[in-house]
Please model this.
Amino acid sequence: MKEELIKVLQIEKRFESHAVLKGVSFSLNKHENLVVIGKSGSGKSVLLKIIIGLIAPDKGSVEVLGKDICRLKELDLRQLRKKIGYLFQDGALFDSMTVRQNLEFPLKRQVQRKTDEEIEELVHQSLKKVGLSNAIDKMPDQLSGGMKKRVALARALMLEPEIILFDEPTTGLDPVTSKEINRLIIESRDKLGISGIVVTHDMYCVKTVGDRLVALNEGTITEVGGMSELNAREEKWLREFFE
Model:
């Protein structure tokens, strides 16, 4: 039996009169990349923010690593977030900090801090994993879009998470850089044992990194399955993704 790291059950979310999520349910298994596809504005990013506890659902529950995040106190939620990396769509690097300082930041906020030597070693290790050791003292405005995404991924790896949430990891990138990001997502799973939820509408990313797919349409889950299963579906909006 597969170990479920995340269980989303009947999540509903409304912003004023607009219902974004309408009873969404799915799970993430250990050592898999689950890809969530859907049109822009379908609620994909909102779903990630609910999973990480940045937004509270109106109804339903989200269990992450055995804990219901909707019922956790703030301190317990912070502890749980140490095990979850989050790659924001734009990278979300701190503009006033160097690459080194961006990577040091999550470690220096911990109650049980590592030594400066341990932090330095982890920074170098994380940058080496994403192929950017020579960018350690650069500022974010000196980096290309693809480099920012890789630095953001290196930062997400600093706390050695069990799960990483990827929000549109290849959006706005050229084909070569997109392939590099996809490779890093796969290596995170295969070499580091990290499970991931990847929100995207980039079908090359879907086909490359996805073990299972969740199709989100108008706030509901249309289908969960493998690439071939969703490719065989007849819904017009879903066919447009595969054509």
In short: The mean pLDDT is 86. The CA atoms of residues 90 and 97 lie 16 Å apart. The radius of gyration is 18 Å.
